[in-house]
Write a structure and sequence with these properties.
The complex is a heterodimer of chains A (about 260) and B (about 210). In chain A, the strands form two sheets. Chain A has a six-stranded mixed beta sheet with strand order 6-7-8-3-9-10, sandwiched between helices. Chain A has a four-stranded antiparallel beta sheet with strand order 2-1-4-5, covered by helices on one side. In chain A, helix 4 packs across helix 5. With about 260 residues, chain A is of the alpha/beta class. With about 210 residues, chain B is mostly helical. Helices cover about 80% and strands about 0% of the residues of chain B. In chain B, helix 3 crosses helix 5. The relative contact order of chain B is 0.15. Classes of the chains: A alpha/beta (about 260), B mainly alpha (about 210).
Chain lengths: ~260, ~210
């Protein structure tokens, strides 16, 4: 964990979010340090995705402020803010009418990079996310789910953002592909040291990828723990998650199969 | 065949009326696209306006065409020239399919794609022109296709108020009780409709996103 003195890259200061009478997030306080992967763990409707969208201002808080790199994000130019933050979602959202190359190169192109620099960058990124170079000319519908999400990650990294927001990026993949992508995420993160805010409902994924895990429930932050602490935690919700983790194996063991 | 002989003998006039017909359809479709596509985009982005807008376009569609031409006759400036009037009426009729298909096309874009685009930092206009419109274009064009085919048919009625076009032959033939004259208007009009249907359809397939 980085030293406490380091200033956080993302900071939620007492953030609440209400929409049509529903309190989605209440009094949320959280700091994400430079270079760490902070995982927001919780069930559906606990406010994880909302927190993420508040960072790149796809949503605006009802009260409180979010600081990105020490400045309140509400005052930043929203387009520049979003371009400086990579965003990966579960449904990937690749542009179906663009080739892989144009998908990855879109923000650089809008930012006015020269064409040769864009295609060099695309090739570099394809390699980084473990894809063959010839995939650049394909269209999204010609790719497998795992390939699509790799392209999604490459696209988010295109303009070399310091911060990545990842909303259950591997949630829709089969377990083996998910395992592959998680492994690659870890090795990528070891080289790139991005500041990552990662949403998942899967404790296994949180333990594997997170440097810290922020547990959320019903719009509130329950606790923030390192993976090892999480497994030992006495917190009732945290231990419920840990118990649920082993259930499948235990059941089979009870039947005498193990 | 009598009809063909009649058309051959009067080919100058057939051509002239066909061009007039095309002009009425062309201008009205153009105006309907200029109004209908932005309106369709607008209601796709602001759904609370979609009911009133689509309902108004629907109501226009239910007015019998002859009545609409008649209603517009006393309008100043417009009423002075029958072709202005005809273009306005045809524009109004062409609006519904164009607005509705633009709305459906834009709404049909995968929300994940729009969210990803917005999250990446595309401006609203970049999102519209680079993502939403290209993905909706074939849907929009299929609305234009319907509008053009309807207009080619309706434009024949514009001759009733003296706006010209192939309807001239049809009304003249009706008055003269002469099938050849009616068909000299009806056949080129039908061919025009088929041609328009085919060419916009071709464009639609060419611009189909993958």
């Amino acid at each position: 964990m980085p030293p406490a003195a380091a200033s956080p890259v993302i900071e939620f200061r007492d953030v609440s979010y209400r929409v049509s009478g529903t309190q989605v997030l209440s009094g949320f306080i959280l700091q994400v340090q430079r270079g760490e992967t902070l995982v927001l763990l919780g069930r559906s409707g606990s406010g994880k995705t909302t927190s993420l969208k508040l960072v790149n201002r796809l949503l605006s808080p009802t009260s409180g402020e979010i600081f990105v790199n020490g400045a309140p994000n509400g005052q930043a130019d929203v387009i520049q803010l979003r371009r400086s933050i990579g965003y990966v979602i579960q449904d990937v959202g690749l542009f179906p009418h663009f080739t892989v190359e144009r998908n990855i190169g879109l923000v650089p192109k809008i930012e006015g990079w020269p064409a040769d620099r864009i295609s060099a960058r695309v090739q570099e990124l394809l390699q980084k996310v473990g894809l063959a170079a010839d995939i650049a000319s394909r269209y999204p519908h010609q790719l497998s789910g795992g390939q699509r999400q790799r392209v999604g990650v490459a696209r988010a990294l295109a303009a070399d953002p310091e911060v990545l927001l990842m909303d259950e990026p591997f949630g829709a993949l089969d377990p083996l592909t998910r395992d592959e992508l998680q492994r690659e995420f870890l090795s990528l993160q070891q080289r790139l040291h991005k500041t990552v805010l990662f949403v998942t409902h899967d404790l296994r994924e949180a333990l594997r990828l997170g440097s810290r895990i922020a547990l959320m429930e019903a719009g509130r932050l329950v606790t923030v723990l390192a993976p090892a602490e999480f497994l030992r935690s006495q917190d009732p919700l945290a231990s419920a998650y840990v118990r649920a983790l082993g259930v499948g194996l235990e059941t089979v063991a009870d039947r005498g199969a193990l | 065949m009598n009809v063909f002989r009649f058309i051959m003998q009067n080919h100058g006039q057939v051509l002239e009326l066909t061009l007039e017909h095309l002009r009425l359809v062309g201008f009205s479709t153009l105006f309907a696209m200029l109004i209908g596509i932005p309106l369709g985009i607008g209601i796709a982005h602001r759904p609370r306006f979609n009911k009133p807008v689509l309902a108004s376009a629907n109501i226009i569609q239910t007015i019998p065409s002859l009545a609409l031409f008649g209603f517009l006759l006393p309008v100043p400036w417009l009423g002075e020239r029958a072709d202005r009037l005809a273009v306005l009426a045809l524009t109004l009729y062409a609006l519904l399919p164009i607005i509705r298909n633009t709305y459906t096309g834009i709404r049909g874009v995968d929300p994940a794609v729009v969210e990803a685009g917005r999250g990446m930092g595309l401006t609203e206009s970049q999102l519209l022109f680079q993502v939403e419109l290209p993905l909706a274009v074939s849907m929009i064009l299929s609305g234009v296709r319907v509008a053009v085919v309807i207009s080619v048919g309706l434009a024949t009625i514009a001759a009733a108020i003296g706006a010209g076009g192939l309807g001239e032959f049809i009304f003249r033939g009706l008055a003269m009780v002469d099938d050849r004259v009616i068909l000299a208007g009806a056949i080129p009009a039908a061919l025009l409709a088929l041609l328009a249907d085919f060419s916009v359809g071709w464009l639609e397939r060419r611009l189909q996103p993958r």
